[in-house]
Specification:
single chain; 480 residues; alpha+beta; 434 Repressor (Amino-terminal Domain); 19 helices; 45% helix
Amino acid sequence: MAASGIELATLGHRIRHHRLARGLTLDELGAQVGVAGSQLSLIENGRREPKLSLLQAIASATGTDVTDLLSPEPPNRRAALELELERAQASSVFRRLGIAPVRAGKTMSDDTLESILGLHRELQRREREAIATPEEARRANTELRLRMREVANYLPDIERLAEKQLKAAGHTSGALTHRTVSIMAEQLGFELLYVADLPHSARSVTDLENGRIYLPPASIPGGHGLRSMALQAMAHRLLGHTPPSDYADFLQQRLEINYYAACCLMPETASVAFLSQAKKDRNLAVEDFRDAFGVTHEAAGMRMTNLMTRHLGIPLHFLRVDGAGAITRVYENDGLPLPMDVTGSVEGQVVCRAFSARSAFEEQNRTVEHYQYTDTPGGTFWCSSQTGTTAEGEFSITVGVPFDDARWFRGRETQKRATSTCPDESCCRRPDPDLTSRWEGKAWPSARVHMQMFSPLPRGNFPGVDDGEVYAFLDRHAAG
């Protein structure tokens, strides 16, 4: 089997090392082994693979043995540096840059070589971080969730920034209009444009050169979310974001722009006043909060997690769960026992069948909130859940609180009660013993595996976004 390029390069370095140790020139060694010095030069530079008989002759002439020459270890520090540079410059990461490789000649000092290698190592490190494998994404997301729990999911600086921008645009009360959002964009030097050919990997695109924010057409299903998308695009500029350095930075930026949009759609002052009055009336409800500000049920529920602990002293949890019971978005600071993997990650885990986040899918009336008390190892919790459907399938939105705080919410009188002993697997994860006895060893299901489980996000300045597609889009519209 032919040797690899790196193996040949290492062999060449070892031959050169032993030749120089003997004080021989290429021509002198060539004369002893019966080949031209130019042929030996090709071998020492890793460009030609020698026959075994020639290797034996070289080993004999340099006072070593073939096994030593074939060792995979570089013969010295300099050789190790040159081999590392060769590997780095052969990598796809470096080749994508279109930069000519550097030749480590005799005149190049070790310090210079170390400096060049330092740049290559950093390039590789950034590539590994930016590629965002599922493991990296889970780790970064878990760390961010825990940090937000420590501050009760409340970011005062962004709250103040949003109120300032709203005041400057003349917004005083009620639902935030598309016109006001356009004014907020104009005050930042941007025009909102709605186009039908956005890159498939981008929710919006901001043209910094021409002062434009491109959004999907207003007629698309769910177009009510265009206000939020525009506000998120503006938030990148207001918050001074730069291209994310790694996946954790990307997640932090995404959280901040979502938070800013929520602050604008449901301003702190007005929202706290609304929620405080509802608490005083013992009539807190996600659907009322949603309707008061003209937002989605999910946005209202998530916004309550920003404000209710800080301003009303109520700990709570929020869950978005898909039709299979898997958690897609989560926040909790009330002690609700959640499923998690060994790394502490919650997203993607399946919630207990007894939770209202799953039992709500069984309800006939999907247009209203459903209430439930659930006894768990962490205590008893009251929850409100509502279901919905998107192109990706069913989902439920749940907001819940510990038993004692249920007294502030509408629906506290519900008689529906369930018991969950999860994470004890006997609760709902183990199959029925009788069914197990009947079918164990007699079934072989074929699992539905989603390819995104194995696929890293597309590489680019912004994880998940195809840079080439975005630039081509901008070029089309800039010329128009």
